[in-house]
Write a structure and sequence with these properties.
The protein is α/β, with parallel strands linked by helices and 351 residues long. It contains 10 helices and 16 strands. The structure holds threonylcarbamoyladenylate (TXA) and magnesium ion.
Length: 351
């Protein structure tokens, strides 16, 4: 199958409209289309068509017990797939939709079990990207979409990343350039009495507490519980992983740099191809391997936006081992570290 990459170009409104319409037609006919959202690129299918959802699992090589997020474009459509929308969830929607927030509800009968990985609940998100919103509307209102990577690979933040994984497997990629956020949406489960954060993201627990008060955080997310099964089925997999081994070094900046230099030197001397992930501030102090900056340490939005792209760049350079600083920044640091720890298979050196 040939994969068409349709570029969305600012100012070319009627051509863009045609491209989105062509993508929507593929979706309505039960096919797959990759499309941009503000978090990462998604791999879409008609969420209410069981055969279409099943194709997603095949294209990604995704385990069939890992449910998909249903993307909508308006509140009325939420009521048609969620059996009960609690008042707290309505407040959250008012505050954060369209945006990088996914909420989980008891599902209605029209949502196929193929879409929910066999669960009685459904995850729903109204994305804050104009192309995504137009596509959802044109396709009939409900697009099931996981991140558009091969299962286990870093999520795609550029259409090129989608093409690396999906070329020849899907008929079309809508290309809107780089995404804005770069890590997947925050997931909050409203199917329980006290809402629970199942995946950290750009919308932080503090932001959520300000809107609805008491929340829980899935205990399975805590680093010390890395053996406990998280509530979101997808969070249990080693995920977001580059081909190379990734090792995080955590501690005081100076010691971190020294340790990374020592380790990188040793690995290079033993004949390994080495990568180093630092920041704008620290990169000039690294002496060994291919050194890449993830951005300024003070700018956590940029760090989040560059994370997956850097891991993919190292894959393309065929490095064997990557040493990275850790980024426990104040606001979205926990969301960034959640992804990095998984990519590293929880290998952290404390210094
Ligand atoms: O930002 C995002 O959320 C992106 C874009 C494309 O919207 N999508 C995304 O989808 O990250 P995916 O499939 O890569 O991650 C969905 C996560 C998985 O961990 C899955 O297990 C969880 O959501 N999930 C989906 N439905 C669920 C449910 N009913 N109960 C618990 N977890 C659920
Ligand atoms: Mg994913």
């Amino acid at each position: 199958m040939e994969t068409v990459i349709a570029k969305i170009i600012e100012g070319e409104d009627s051509k863009n409209r045609q491209k989105i319409e062509a993508a929507a037609r593929i979706l309505r006919e039960g096919g797959l289309v990759a499309f941009p959202t503000e978090t990462v690129y998604g791999l879409g299918a008609d969420a209410l068509n069981p055969a279409a959802s099943a194709k997603i699992y095949q294209a990604k090589g995704r385990p069939s017990d890992n449910p998909l997020i249903v993307h909508i474009s308006c509140m009325e459509d939420l009521e048609k797939i969620a059996a009960r929308v609690p008042a707290g969830a309505r407040k959250m929607a008012e505050q954060f939709w369209p945006g990088p927030l996914t909420m989980i509800f008891e599902k209605r009968g029209n949502v196929p079990l193929e879409t929910t990985g066999g669960l009685a609940t459904v995850a729903v998100r109204m994305p804050g990207h104009p192309v995504a919103l137009s596509l959802i509307q044109a396709a009939g209102g409900y697009i099931a979409a996981p991140s558009a990577n091969t299962s286990g690979k870093p999520s795609p933040t550029l259409a090129e990343h989608v093409a690396q994984d999906m070329n020849g497997r899907i008929p079309m990629i809508l290309d809107s350039g780089a995404v804005g956020i770069g890590i997947e949406s925050t997931i909050v489960d409203f199917s329980e009495k006290i809402p629970m954060v199942l995946r950290p993201g750009y919308i932080t627990p503090d932001m959520i507490k300000k809107v609805i008060g008491e929340i829980k955080i899935d205990p399975g997310l805590a680093e010390e519980n890395s053996g406990t099964r998280p509530k979101a089925p997808g969070m249990k997999y080693k995920h977001y992983a580059p081909k190379a081994e990734l090792i995080l070094v955590n501690g005081a900046q100076e010691k971190v740099q020294q340790t990374i230099n020592d380790l990188a030197r040793e690995a290079a001397l033993s004949g390994k191809a080495v990568g180093v992930i630092g920041t704008d501030e620290s990169c000039s102090s690294y002496r060994y391997g291919i050194v890449k900056s993830i951005g300024a340490r003070s700018d956590e939005d940029t760090i989040a936006r560059h994370l997956y792209g850097i891991l993919r760049e190292f894959d393309q350079k065929d490095v064997d081992i990557i040493y990275s600083e850790s980024f426990s920044t104040p606001r979205i640091g926990p969301a960034i570290m959640n992804r990095m720890l998984k990519a590293a298979g929880h290998q952290v050196i404390e210094v």
